[in-house]
Amino acid sequence: MSYEGASDLMTVPLPTETTRWRCTLCGNLTRFDVTRSSKVVEYVHLDLAGEPKVEEREVVSETIDSVRCRWCNAVDQIELVDRPGADS
Ligand SMILES: [Zn+2]
Questions:
Q1: pTM of the predicted model, to two decimals?
Q2: Who's near 18: CB < 8 A, 6+ residues apart?
Q3: In whole angstroms, what is the distance from residue 62 CA to residue 71 CA?
Q4: Integer distance in angstroms from the first to the last C-alpha of the chain?
Q5: Distance CA 15, CA 79 (A)
Q6: For the purposes of burial, counting CB atoms within 10 Å of the CB of 74, is it exposed (0-12), middle (13-18) or buried (19 or more)?
Q7: How confident is the model at residue 79 (pLDDT cuts 50, 70, 90)?
Q8: Tens-digit pLDDT profile for residues 2-14
């Protein structure tokens, strides 16, 4: 048994203010399905009838599990490229 995938846990680089995702296979820049895991704290306010309503939601932690290209369905084949006009 080998665990080849183990080192690929962070295969999705996070975009910054000056970079954006690009699919390395087809060059798609604009359309992705992002699978995200979030841990959130919700302020649940129930009315007298017992109907709950979430009034505040605070994201405690958030990780991106995978990104799939909407054009070619490649999973986690993402690289970061500069946004247009971004010069550093
Ligand atoms: Zn693609």
A1: 0.68
A2: 82, 83, 86, 88
A3: 25
A4: 45
A5: 9
A6: middle
A7: very high
A8: 555 444 555 788 8
Non-local CB neighbours of 15 within 8 Å, separated by 6+ positions: 21, 80
Quick: pLDDT tens for 61-75.
999 999 999 999 999
Name residue, tokens 């996070």.
14
Q: Cα(33) to centroid of ligand 1, in Å?
A: 11
Between the CA of 76 and the centroid of ligand 1 the distance, in Å, is 10
Show Cβ contacts of residue 47 under 8 Å, excluding neighbours closer than 6 positions.
Answer: 53
- Answer yes or no: are the C-beta atoms of 74 and 23 closer than 8 Å: yes
Question: What's the gap in Å between 7 CA and the centre of ligand 1?
Answer: 22
